Amino acid sequence: MAHLSITTAAAEQIHRVLDERGHGLGLRVSVKPSGCSGYSYVLDFADEAANDDVTFEEHGVTVYVAPEALEMLDGSEVDYVTEGLNRFFRFNNPNVKDECGCGESFSV
């Protein structure tokens, strides 16, 4: 069975954005072919669950993963980090074999 973990920082940010939006079920994660290394993460907020979504719950939040992304994301940790003035969700993904120099895409 696939596994995806959610850090406390990521859960707090998901809660914060859902509260600001006033609606939504959680964070939706998928991947798409993109960039110089092959794939990029696609993040959105889920307002409804798709029948084939795989869900992961931790720290009171739910992350919805598209089934076609599940194998690439298995074992990943969703984190929310601050680097300088930038704040963003980061995926600590053990399946990544290579990343592009700008960090926007990866290969598995």
UniProtKB/TrEMBL annotation:
It holds the Pfam family Fe-S_biosyn. Residues 3-104 form the Core domain. InterPro entries: ATAP, ATAP_core_dom, Fe-S_cluster_asmbl/transfer, FeS_cluster_insertion_CS, HesB-like_dom_sf. Belongs to the HesB/IscA family. This is Iron-sulfur cluster assembly accessory protein. It comes from Halomonas aquatica.
